[in-house]
Amino acid sequence: MFKAVVIVKRRPTILDPEGKAVEQGAKLLGFNNVKNTRIGKYIEFFVDTNDREAAEKEVLEYSQKLLSNPIMEDFEYTIEEVK
Amino acid sequence: MKPKFGVIIFPGANCDHDAYYATKKVLGYNAEFIWHKERDLKDCDVIILPGGFSYGDYLRTGAIAKFSPVMEEVIKFANNGGIVLGICNGFQILLETGLLPGAMQKNRSLKFICKDVYLKVENKNTIFTSSIKQDVIKIPIAHGEGNYYADDETIKSLEENNQIVFKYSSKEGKVSSEFNPNGSIKNIAGIINKNGNVLGMMPHPERACDPILKRTDGSLIFKSIAENIFVNQK
After folding, report:
1. Closest partner CB to B110 (pick from A21, A41, A69)
2. Is the ipTM of this complex over 0.90?
């Protein structure tokens, strides 16, 4: 079994209204050095196989087909074997 | 002959009854509900993907509804020239399926907005707009994620092919950021596919049909569809 973590992020060129709003809050709290806050999604799940290659393929396809929107998002993932 | 509208019901949709009511009870056409797990489009002439929050809008608006069994049939129907109208969440689903280009983001203000807006009709030469005589119509919006985005190349192609159908405007038809409720690129409120048979729009025409509500501009869209629907089949 493998545990996968997928992070989905808006492309850097795309405006992130949530990130901007949160950063306004940061300024109000006095975090004056905080810059370019971007908000993405953290998605974790398990892949029930012992074959690492098959697990990677499944994570990649799941991320491409459903978890991210290729028009404005990028994703990265990690997978680790768990007992 | 009366056209038959098929209104898809997705779990979480909440404007399906409005679309059914507007087309059947107010305008007097035929209408049927189609559950999202069905694969039979019941010989409908037009498919409506209604507004609401399919699958709770989890992950991204429309992302999960895209894989409902009925959508396979809707995509085939659209690719064969069938008329499909996506309203609000329905528009978001059309973007996710790729039947229309682009993607949706949260409103620039991060607020859910529910109010009447004016729309400049940019293209009256479509099966969805041919009965609209005036340049500007008034239709309500109700969405948290209607900030349309597409890259420069896509926008250029939409403009070149007259695919931008509605833009947010002033009452007089002035299109500027002042009248843009959600930050949508180029004030876009509705677009059509290249073949002209699939329209996606954020405003809710089904909520502006019944004279009792004192606004009826939305009915012009359904009337346009009804008038054009059998033309190509004759």
Report:
1. A21
2. no
Q: How many residues does chain B have?
A: 234
Say what the pTM is.
0.92
Answer whether B202's CB lies under 8 Å from B146's CB.
Answer: yes
Structure tokens belonging to residue B68: 């409902």
Name residue, tokens 């559950």: B35
Per-residue confidence in pLDDT tens, chain B, 234 aa: 899 999 999 999 999 999 999 999 999 999 999 999 999 999 999 999 999 999 999 999 999 999 999 999 999 999 999 999 999 999 999 999 999 999 999 999 989 999 999 999 999 999 999 999 999 999 999 999 999 999 999 999 999 999 999 999 999 999 999 999 999 999 999 999 999 999 999 999 999 999 999 999 999 999 999 999 877 554
Residue of A nearest to B154 (CA): A71
Asked if A21 has any chain B CB less than 8 Å from its own CB, the reply is yes
B48 in Cβ contact with B32 (< 8 Å): no
Interface check for B30 against chain A (CB to CB < 8 A): the answer is: no
Token duo for residue B119: 């729309």
- Residues of A in Cβ contact (< 8 Å) with B147: 17
